[in-house]
Design goal:
α4 (58-70) packs parallel to α6 (91-100). A hairpin with a 6-residue loop joins β2 (104-113) and β3. The protein has eight helices and eight strands, in the order ααααβααββαββββαβ. It is an alpha/beta fold and 183 residues long.
Length: 183
Amino acid sequence: MALLVGLVFGVVQVGEPLEYMLHAGRNKLRSHPASGSTVLVAIDDRSIGELGPLPWDGARFAALVRRIDAADARRIHLDTDLTSADSIGEAPQLESALGETRAEVLLPARLSINPISGSRTNHRPSERFARHARLVNTNLVVRWDGAVRRQPYGADGGNGMLPSLAAVLGESRHPDEGLFPVD
């Protein structure tokens, strides 16, 4: 009977929803105020209404980078595909802004895997932008219920290991592709 219960809970993971509820309760008990050291600047509906629809060109992103840098940010992460900024025009303005910023610039690099063929595609910013930044992996581990409960320390970016954005922001020095729980 113990073997059967162990198999049901271990292999089939019947107890997973219960475990997640217990984790949520534990996290609520451990709740603490945020440090306030991270600021999210979102491109929301108001931004799009005032500045125009996406994709934005390099000049628009360059202005954004310069304004955030002028606010004495320690790091700037542009969580967007810069392909349009490179191809639409004014890429030299964005390249210049990235090169002149005092803040550390983080740019996203992610991978996608074709579910049918299994082929892997790396998505990276062009070299003209990447040479002024630190590339970070932005892939997420999304569970069956749409929740993100674990994050990778890093992932193979095609040219070696790239730390995840979460690991960089958390100042982790963990070198491999292991996962850590989201606090």
